[in-house]
Backbone:
């Protein structure tokens, strides 16, 4: 590591192999590791750590204390986490990454994504263009999130889940992927996350059992307990969730 010049930030540490684009600035105490590429006109905050091989596109803002490209840890009892080769983190152009965000190695963040303060994005995750990840959201490993989604404060997206284009997830929503609650080796055969198809919406504090699919443009009401698949374009309510009525045509994604 060597101290960077005044353009990059007088007290940042930048590995000699790293590349920092024209007009980019690094805050006090930032660390840029071996093989990192930072595009043009980026703003990197104070005490940001950018791990080996990470690529950041043009016009990206990363706020204070964020960690990009972190390697995962595997506990002895981890069911989903696998150690091995992961591609370097890729953050495409014009993304916004908040304070104390952690994004792991092996993730792909498409252009114009916003990840708010204190969110965590695990390895083997792809987040589509213009999606918003709210404050304190956790996205576990092996998750795909489509473009133009909004996932609000403190939602929990469990491993092995899939979220389609234009979905909305309100605060404190919880996905699950293990019907055996961590007991017996049998559970490893059945791990499965939650699937939201294109345009599905979920109200605050809804909970989903493993393997549930929510159909396109369906709406899950606040506080619902979803134990079975939700038909497309239907509103479900209650615990267990039951069909109430159809989603009004003016609320369908294609009619926006």
Residues:
């Amino acid at each position: 590591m060597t101290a960077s010049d005044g353009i990059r930030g007088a007290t940042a540490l930048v590995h000699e192999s790293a590349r920092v684009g024209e007009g980019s600035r690094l805050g006090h105490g930032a660390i840029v590791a071996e093989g990192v590429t930072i595009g043009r006109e980026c703003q990197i905050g104070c005490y940001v750590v950018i791990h080996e091989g990470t690529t950041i596109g043009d016009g990206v803002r990363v706020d204070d204390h964020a960690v990009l490209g972190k390697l995962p840890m595997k506990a002895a009892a981890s069911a989903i986490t696998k150690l091995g080769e992961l591609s370097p983190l890729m953050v495409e152009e014009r993304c916004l990454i908040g304070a104390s965000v952690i994004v792991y190695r092996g993730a792909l963040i498409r252009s114009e994504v916003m990840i708010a303060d204190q969110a965590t994005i695990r390895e083997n995750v792809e987040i589509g263009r213009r999606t918003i990840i709210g404050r304190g959201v956790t996205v576990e490993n092996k998750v795909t999130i489509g473009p133009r989604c909004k996932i609000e404060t403190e939602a929990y997206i469990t491993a092995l889940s899939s979220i389609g284009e234009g979905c909305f997830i309100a605060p404190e929503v919880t996905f699950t992927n293990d019907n055996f609650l961590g007991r017996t080796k049998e559970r490893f055969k059945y791990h499965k996350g939650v699937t939201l198809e294109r345009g599905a919406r979920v109200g605050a504090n809804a909970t989903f059992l493993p393997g549930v699919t929510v159909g396109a443009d369906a709406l899950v009401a606040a506080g619902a307990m979803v134990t079975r698949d939700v038909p497309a374009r239907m509103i479900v309510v209650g615990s267990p969730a039951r069909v109430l009525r159809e989603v009004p045509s003016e609320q369908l994604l294609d009619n926006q």
